[in-house]
Amino acid sequence: MTPTEYRDLLSALDLTQAGAARLLGVDERTSRKWACGERDVPQPAQRFLRFLLAAKIAPDLVMKLLAS
Questions:
Q1: Apex CA 67: angle with CA 25 and CA 56, to 5°?
Q2: DSSP state, residue 40
Q3: pTM to 2 decimals?
Q4: Which residues contact 6 (CB under 8 A, 6 or more apart)?
Q5: CA distance 38 to 20
Q6: How far apart are CA 1 and CA 6, in angstroms?
Q7: For position 68, what pLDDT does the model report?
Q8: Which pLDDT band, with edges at 50, 70 and 90, does 7 fall under?
Q9: Nearest to 23 by CA among 54, 56, 66, 53
């Protein structure tokens, strides 16, 4: 996944880089590094974000479920 693809996916999910970091359980700096290409987005994170988009599952719903 390219940095542009990552940013586009976050945009499609209406997620900020900070929101994606909270959702994926990583530090905000890690999400920023993925967005600028300093680090590769791990396959599990890519698949999870793509699944949310394909299944039309709102990240907010996932966060609420995980908080319960």
A1: 75
A2: P
A3: 0.91
A4: 34, 35, 41
A5: 17
A6: 7
A7: 76
A8: very high
A9: 66
